[in-house]
Amino acid sequence: MHPPRRAIWSAPDGGGRDFLVPIVEMAALHGIFWGTAKVLGKPYADISLETMRRNLTDGWVWDEDAFATNAFGHPYQGSLAYTAARSNGFGFWGSVPFTVASSVLWELFMESESPSTNDLITTSIGGVVLGEVLHRTALAILDEGEPTLARSVISLLVEPVGGINRFLFGRRKNDFFPVPGSFLQGMAGVTSNVDNYNDIDGTRFDVPNQLEGHLGVEVVYGPPQLTSGDYDQPFDYFTLTARMGFSRDTLTVGFFSRGLLYGDRFQFRSVSGLWGLMAGYDFANPNTLRVSTVSLGIGGVAQVPLTSQLTLDSTATVAGVPFGHGGGLTSPESARDYHFGPGAQSAFELGLVRRGVGRVGVSVRNYLISGAFLGEGVELITYATARAELLLAGQHGVALEAFVANRAGQFGIGSDTLRQRATQIRLLWTFSKGPGFGTR
């Protein structure tokens, strides 16, 4: 770990918690978001004392905004409020009230529309999970090598509010925790869509295939075989996979994160790992195969050394979904063209790692989203990935991936089941920190 960088204003000891700064920053963020919406002519930005009074008295509703707004925009807005508190000396739990308060104040006073229950859920839970992952990732980027301008810029992009606070006030003393051993990987390459189809009302038709660019990041923070000590704080262990596919006509994003809220490591003979209560936030938007969830459930990681250089790495989680978004509606009556409601999800990953050589593995994520809140059908969405990766020279390598997304959507009792599938092949260049891919 490196000493704190010189700040414009900073306390001599690095400073403890600061209540005023995150409150001012939340107000500034609300002003920026509201002002931008007002300039763009968004109707919800037409606020007045009358709209505020009405929002306080008329009660909360389920809103029907667009998928990107509800599934990503609100959680990201929540993460900014969370990191405002987190980078001002507050711990994980101490930053949660700021996130919830920020969401409540926005819903009541910064929009003319009725306050939204689903926005409160996703902004609060998604904002906390996303915020903690981005906060720790930004600090890991700063601390995993010699201080450079590039590290500072990347850290700022990952955690904008935290980066500004570190520039102005320096690292708070509560931020000087040891960063556990972590695995970071960047990747870039091309994706070919090889087998896409929709099956609507029993009629199958192909979706045009095209070549896309592909960027990605993978983080395994605090893996059990590389980290000494107990998992005392929430998210001392977490994983993050972020992907982006792009072409002239499309932009798809995938963001999958989960962290250990409460748990411990275990050791059984040669098998080591961790288990406990996991919290997660996922978002992916490949057309109507899209899904977004906030989740809470049980999960574990087990690593089995087969030889001194060969390790079997496995992860499994089963979680409830307080609120999720998924799929698509064929004839939407509003901006909402997807199902939303409670549900469940699971994830299973299995990999074989040869230290300094490469790895092979598979991962499967299943999502069940019920339209129970509005009396609508159900979405069952599965993402499956198979991957083979070879290190070529030092930290540089090449990976080949096969990705399949499958959707079965139903729109009410007695309705037909709509089935869709997308299959992609990806060829990627990779740059990895650490030859063990998160294992010893």
UniProtKB/TrEMBL annotation:
InterPro entries: DUF3943 (IPR025079)
Residues of the DUF3943 domain: 59-160
Matching Pfam families: DUF3943 (PF13084)
Protein name: DUF3943 domain-containing protein
Organism of provenance: Myxococcus fulvus (strain ATCC BAA-855 / HW-1)
